């Protein structure tokens, strides 16, 4: 790896701080998140095989760290609304997966509340389906059904809106909006 951590700090600290500030309102939380990001970068920079991918790699760490921050601070309270600007990316930061992810956020917001709750708790807050059943007071099979139905609804919305080309690992390599009037993207 040709990059030293101080070079990464010099190149990314200011843009990352700006990026975080748009998504987290408290200044101390922004500083804590930035510090956590650079610890992760420092601990994992040797695993980055291609210097050309450092930009996307760092912004992925940043986005995931912000999501972790919201998860940690909302354990006992279900926030049906995800932070509005969490999926927003600058054009140079945008990848196909990231853009589709921002569309999915809007799609999740458009699900009926019981399905929205099931997806947010299981997919974004890493709750098991058993924990979902206990929290909502329904059977385990009922919880599984809700999650499955929510996933099917999201898939249907996505496929109505976009034509996706995926690699064999399921990453989106290209997509095209089917209509310019898609209400999600």
UniProtKB/TrEMBL annotation:
It comes from the Bacteria. Keywords: Sigma factor, Transcription, Transcription regulation. Residues 16-75 form the RNA polymerase sigma-70 region domain. The keyword Transcription applies. Pfam families: Sigma70_r2, Sigma70_r4_2. Residues 103-154 form the RNA polymerase sigma factor 70 region 4 type domain. GO terms for molecular function: DNA binding; sigma factor activity. The keyword DNA-binding does not apply. SUPFAM superfamilies: Sigma2 domain of RNA polymerase sigma factors (SSF88946), Sigma3 and sigma4 domains of RNA polymerase sigma factors (SSF88659). One of its GO terms (biological process) is DNA-templated transcription initiation. Belongs to the sigma-70 factor family. ECF subfamily. This is RNA polymerase sigma factor SigZ. It comes from Anaeromonas frigoriresistens. The lineage of its organism: Bacteria, Bacillati, Bacillota, Tissierellia, Tissierellales.
């Amino acid at each position: 790896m040709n990059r030293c951590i101080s070079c990464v700090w010099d190149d990314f600290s200011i843009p990352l701080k700006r990026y975080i500030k748009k998504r987290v309102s408290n200044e101390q939380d922004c500083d804590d998140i930035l510090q956590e990001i650079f610890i992760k970068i420092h601990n994992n920079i040797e695993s980055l095989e291609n210097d050309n991918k450092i930009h996307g790699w760092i912004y992925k760490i940043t986005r995931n760290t912000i999501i972790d921050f919201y998860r940690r601070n909302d354990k006992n309270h279900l926030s049906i609304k995800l932070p509005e600007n969490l999926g927003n990316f600058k054009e140079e930061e945008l990848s196909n997966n990231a853009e589709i992810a921002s569309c999915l956020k809007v799609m999740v917001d458009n699900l009926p509340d019981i399905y929205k709750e099931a997806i947010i708790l299981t997919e974004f807050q890493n709750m098991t389906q058993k924990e979902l059943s206990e929290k909502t007071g329904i059977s385990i099979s009922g919880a599984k059904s809700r999650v499955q139905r929510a996933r099917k609804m999201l898939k249907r919305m996505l496929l109505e809106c976009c034509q996706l080309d995926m690699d064999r690992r399921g990453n989106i390599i290209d997509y095209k909006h089917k209509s310019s009037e898609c209400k999600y993207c």
